[in-house]
From TrEMBL:
<dbReference type="GO" id="GO:0016702">
    <property type="term" value="F:oxidoreductase activity, acting on single donors with incorporation of molecular oxygen, incorporation of two atoms of oxygen"/>
</dbReference>
<protein>
    <submittedName>
        <fullName>Intradiol ring-cleavage dioxygenase, core</fullName>
    </submittedName>
</protein>
<dbReference type="GO" id="GO:0008199">
    <property type="term" value="F:ferric iron binding"/>
</dbReference>
<keyword id="KW-0560">Oxidoreductase</keyword>
<dbReference type="Pfam" id="PF00775">
    <property type="entry name" value="Dioxygenase_C"/>
</dbReference>
<feature type="signal peptide">
    <location>
        <begin position="1"/>
        <end position="20"/>
    </location>
</feature>
<dbReference type="InterPro" id="IPR015889">
    <property type="entry name" value="Intradiol_dOase_core"/>
</dbReference>
<feature type="domain" description="Intradiol ring-cleavage dioxygenases">
    <location>
        <begin position="116"/>
        <end position="218"/>
    </location>
</feature>
<keyword id="KW-0732">Signal</keyword>
<keyword id="KW-0223">Dioxygenase</keyword>
<dbReference type="InterPro" id="IPR000627">
    <property type="entry name" value="Intradiol_dOase_C"/>
</dbReference>
Amino acid sequence: MYTSILSLALGIASLPLVASHPGEDHHKEAMKRREFLQNSGVANLDHCAGQLEASGVTARSIQRRQNLVHGIREKRGLVARGSGHVGRSYDAQVNEAENFKKNASCILAPEEILGPYYVAGEYIRSNVVEDQVGVPVHLDISFIDVNTCKPLVNSYADIWQANATGVYGGVVQEGFENRNDTWEETWGLTWLRGIQKTDEDGAVHFETIFPGHYEGRAVHIHVLTHPDAKPLPNNTIIDERASHVGQMYFDQDLVDRVEETAPYNTNNQPRTSNAEDEFLQGDLAEGGYPYLQYQLVGDKLEDGLVAWLNFGVNGTEDKIVDPITTYHPRPTQPPKACPAKH
């Protein structure tokens, strides 16, 4: 079975792929997305706020994010803008807790916006950077069932994204060969892709870099949840079913600041702003809010940031997803993760 899947995927991969999700009709897909939100009756997690508070999920998420930021600062010897984590005032601690309590939330339609660069058979790991260079990002993502308002526990979350110059690893983005900017064949590579298992609060943590832009889409990170996946002996997951497929976005002012730094400023692909992205605007129009909240780790953007988001997920969904390829088999151990660099 895996052999046939791989053979088919290799054939698909030989077709022309361009950077802007080839073959997609962005307007058509965005309209399908908007129709889903209108029919679902639920676009965010506002109705779950009380239950999440009462069960301690909110308090633990605040503490988890605080610990993450402070741990990174201690490890790197960094001090946050305005105050360090040593000797902070009570007011500073309260303000920080309120910041970490901000839970952007949305419910996204399974299947509708998977995109063509989803690869099955990725490694279970938290650090997906490998040799990619860019602004470090520590993701804290939680998944909450919008029907029960309870965390999605023991589900595997899959992320994938473009690198600083708008290129996806694991696939071959043809159409770059005749461009003047840097192009590399990325078929079979694993960077900026990985899977983690959700904990008792439905949360996962990933270490990655800030994604770069590519033609036709705003800057984003893909996310997918597998409801009943089983790890293989080589520490990967091959699963064609999903309870949720979505994307995470960043504030436009943050995107603009990042893209002034290297190597983002070497990306010559046409840019699409948040205001021009139909998928994002459709979410916002229906009451969703798929923006990652964030806090800088240090005084400089290049020091990185912690970003978080609570996803509202329909826990009863069980859809089939179609990867562009399936990597099988792979070595037991993934490539060594390299620290994110500027």
